[in-house]
């Protein structure tokens, strides 16, 4: 296999918005930094973000002429989170938001504009003001290209199509990682003083997901295996409007621009579920409403409702939502100018992730995490649309600052430790390639996705989840019996899928155990057998670790202080 070892001040795993923003910041501080990504950075899921990024710029007035503020943004975020977000992290993100949007503009992002030339802002779910800045409905594409151009400009090395297989841990510290070069099959070692995971979400452990196929949560599983605790993993966001048939996202921007939801009788049913906010209630509320309508027989055959944009008129649809129109035409044969779009809820976002402190440091020294793979806890039990793009760029920068500020010396033994980790990885890969138990990694992934959606979907219930957990464990046993028909490590997709699957199965079990233990309903976690929020027992973060090979669940307090915990109403 014959890989190489290199040494860096910082290694950043992930080439999405978080990873690229962090890389820029570390490089600006004059340190050596490498980015590793399993796909070309521009294929990271960030590129698919549609609707926009929240910042209280106050360019568009709210009800009665009120002007937005970062405090209002923080309030909406904490309320949207069903009070599970850490309020210090939320305040930090919301305070940094306006400068972050302007900084991106200075780097080259082409934000859509108002008539007066200011950056345009549109209403989004759960927000008291039109606060979401956007580049048509292709915001992620625009911002990711901006940051990638900056990374190219600084000549930051990017190891693309390198799949990180393990974090190297020694003496209670993270000393780097090993990675499989997909093209050649070589295993390389990266020794680093600090390592940042920016590997995105784990949405693909569910079927009906809006996420890219690469969103398998590798970094979250790597952290768990290296001994860093995970947080709030049972909180998985289901987006109300994904295209029926393919589950491609139909951005909340479609409702932000005025789109309405109707059932098969033609009723605008959100009036019964959120009489004030209607379609712009937070995602957990709208997704449950649609599921309820479908369950009551008010959906269309096959299980969907209609998202109607026709009253917006062709001009507005083509100017503000051109990507959505194209997706509806290409993948459902429906032109939203003339017909309503068939939509159903689908998995969309991972609120939980690697537990980090406000500086982005995980439970393992010198290992940091930011973006969707991390849980610094700005989303709590339910994320508001537009807050994730914001989180990636704000914390990509701030966590890089803490890396630069805290950088330890390179450990003398780091190169040797990384070298022996490379050998271990090579042996493991050879062992996997030698298996011939008859199971297919592709089929196992499909079964896992179906199991998760069925047993840990929008509505959950104890018995059903127990059964799901048994299925996950059985899949884990079966995964040891895979067959590799191609026994070469170069360009071996089955091998990469298998390496992903190992992590996905671990994460699925953590989600399952967290969901079973949390006997309440909060945000995205809705239990039919425990329909109410229980602050006495569960106003707390779920912490998951592996102890003696088993997942252990514990709780830790939520950081409150800015806003009082209240009942949520919309
Ligand atoms: C369709 C869609 C639309 C969205 N729209 C919006 C929106 O409008 N507004 C909003 O706020 N949020 C939106 N979101 C959410 C938001 O886009 C994501 O949360 C965010 O972009 C995640 O960025 P990230 O940098 O954390 O990770 P990602 O962009 O997912 O990047 C992860 C990176 O990690 C790398 N990686 C992963 N595993 C490995 C490994 N084993 N080895 C090497 N590299 C690895 C990948 O190659 C990739 O480069 C949307 C999400 C989806 C799915």
SSE layout and pairing:
Elements: E1 5-13, H1 17-28, E2 33-37, E3 53-54, H2 70-80, H3 87-107, E4 121-122, E5 132-133, H4 139-153, E6 158-160, E7 162-170, E8 173-181, E9 187-197, H5 218-226, E10 230-231, E11 236-243, H6 253-256, E12 260-262, H7 270-273, H8 283-295, E13 305-308, H9 313-320, H10 322-332, E14 341-350, E15 353-355, E16 367-369, E17 374-375, H11 387-406, H12 414-433, H13 441-455, E18 459-460, H14 462-479, H15 493-517, E19 526-527, H16 535-538, E20 540-547, E21 550-557
Parallel strand pairs: 1-2, 1-9, 2-6, 9-16, 15-17, 18-19
Antiparallel strand pairs: 3-5, 4-5, 7-8, 8-9, 10-15, 10-20, 11-14, 12-13, 13-14, 20-21
Helix pairs in contact: 1-4, 1-11, 2-3, 3-11, 5-15, 13-14, 13-15, 14-15
The structure holds flavin-adenine dinucleotide (FAD).
Flavin-adenine dinucleotide binds at residues 13-19, 36-39, 41, 44-46, 48-53, 139-140, 163-164, 198-200, 210-211, 214-215, 218-219, 249, 349, 371-373, 385-389, 392.
Folded structure, characterized:
The chain is an alpha/beta fold and 570 residues long. Among the domains are: 239-345, Alpha-Beta Complex (Flavocytochrome C3, Chain A, domain 1), CATH 3.90.700.10; 436-557, Fumarate reductase/succinate dehydrogenase flavoprotein-like, C-terminal domain (Methane Monooxygenase Hydroxylase, Chain G, domain 1, Up-down Bundle). Helix content is 37%, strand content 19%. The chain has 16 helices and 21 strands. Helix 1 (17-28) links the parallel strand 1 and strand 2 (33-37). The radius of gyration is 23 Å and the shape is globular. The model has no long low-confidence stretch (mean pLDDT 97). The chain binds flavin-adenine dinucleotide (FAD).
